[in-house]
Task: structure prediction
Amino acid sequence: MEGYVALALVAINAVLYFVRYKPAVLLTALILILATFNLLSFFTIIQTSGLTIMGVSTPEIQLKSLLLLVIYCVINFNLLINWYLDMKEEKAKKNLKIISYPFL
Result:
């Protein structure tokens, strides 16, 4: 079941890349995070790893999906940072406009 959901999300994401690029890149990150924490599965054989520290277990993760997530972050790091800085700059401009022109 998890494999079909992953396939459907990847198909939606592929179409979204041609329609709107920024949401597609963010959806890719979301899909990889869900796959890392064992909520989606891209592979037929699911191998999970987890830790138990003093009787408390960590969530199990799929190491292959974690590797894909790390590769994704390395490739898109500059793009994601630039989008964050643009968003922060727009917010600062909006706040400056409100402060500068309170009577308009």
